[in-house]
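Example 9 (inverse folding). The structure is encoded as follows.
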């Protein structure tokens, strides 16, 4: 009897999801024994033509990591959707855009200017921008077209399951793989999140929460937090109240704020939920102050919160209610 087939593809991402899969340890040998790997260009010399030659639905399980940033990413998303029985958005980039999605706060023109024109360099080709099509002595070469808006995988093709995280925790991946290898039933497909919790990260975080009011926010390098105490109540913008559980609250337990990589809870916008959490801890001044004075004090506290959009939507901008910033002139 033929073994089921497995594929993994890397779109707009850093490659950490590929490493996290290897972090399941010896279980990867069980995966290798149970599946025929038919496409995994990160670890073997597979070609796109190989996938194009497979019958539709040939791939039993495909883990797709990375956001849709350019035309090549989109082409492969459609191809792998057509060739795969089960397509999984693996990791935060595929699920919600992640760090590549922060490009939606600006424009391609501004990004290109920063990288190729304004940056310090000794390269004499400063100001020469990459072109989709170029003529060279050997003929015409083309590169993928960079899209103005970064999208998550499910904004391009239907997704069966989502495994969140940047990258997903190895123990969560292992739990899903064991379920698949042992023939255990998975939830009904249709963009279903697996390998994560269904409550806020704060629920699994052991740090003490005393509902303190704060008078300013700090960036992580500015203070050494007290161990055992909620980081948000110490003025560090910990995204725990607005982030799905599942990682074990590893970062807060070592004094690093949660950045929000597991994404929002079902039916919530991560940035809006975090704004509500921040509002609950900001000191509003004494009752002796009038409304305008209280507003000034609150504004002074909020002025210490650096880059709220990039902080609240560090991982989820492309998949959020905002999706991208409105820019009047895309050439600006």
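The amino acid assigned to each position is listed next.
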């Amino acid at each position: 009897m033929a073994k089921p087939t497995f594929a993994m593809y890397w779109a707009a991402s850093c490659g950490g999801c590929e490493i996290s899969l290897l972090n399941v340890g010896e279980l990867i040998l069980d995966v290798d024994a149970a599946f025929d790997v038919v496409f995994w260009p990160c670890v073997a010399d597979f070609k796109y033509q190989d996938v194009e030659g497979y019958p539709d639905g040939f791939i039993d399980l495909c883990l797709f990591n990375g956001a849709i940033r350019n035309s090549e990413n989109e082409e492969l998303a459609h191809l792998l959707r057509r060739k795969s029985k089960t397509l999984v958005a693996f990791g935060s980039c595929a699920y919600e855009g992640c760090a590549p999605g922060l490009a939606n706060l600006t424009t391609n023109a501004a990004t290109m200017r920063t990288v190729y024109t304004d940056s310090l360099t000794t390269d004499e080709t400063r100001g020469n921008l990459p072109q989709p099509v170029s003529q060279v002595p050997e003929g015409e070469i083309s590169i993928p077209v960079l899209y103005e808006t970064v999208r998550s995988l499910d904004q391009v093709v239907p997704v069966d399951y989502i495994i969140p995280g940047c990258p997903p925790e190895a123990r969560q991946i292992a739990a899903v793989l064991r379920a698949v290898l042992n023939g255990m039933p998975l939830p009904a497909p249709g963009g279903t999140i697996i390998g994560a919790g269904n409550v806020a990260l704060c629920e699994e975080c052991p740090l003490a929460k005393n509902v303190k009011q704060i008078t300013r926010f700090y960036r992580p390098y500015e203070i050494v937090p007290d161990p055992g105490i909620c980081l948000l109540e110490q003025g560090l913008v910990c995204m725990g109240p607005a982030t799905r559980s599942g990682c074990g609250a590893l970062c807060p337990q070592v004094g690093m704020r949660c950045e929000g990589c597991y994404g929002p809870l079902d039916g919530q916008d991560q940035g809006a939920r975090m704004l509500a959490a921040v509002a609950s801890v900001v000191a509003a001044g004494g009752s002796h102050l009038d409304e305008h004075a209280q507003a000034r004090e609150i504004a002074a506290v909020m002025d210490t919160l650096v880059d709220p959009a990039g902080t609240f939507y560090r991982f989820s901008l492309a998949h959020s209610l905002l999706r991208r910033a409105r820019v009047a002139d895309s050439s600006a």
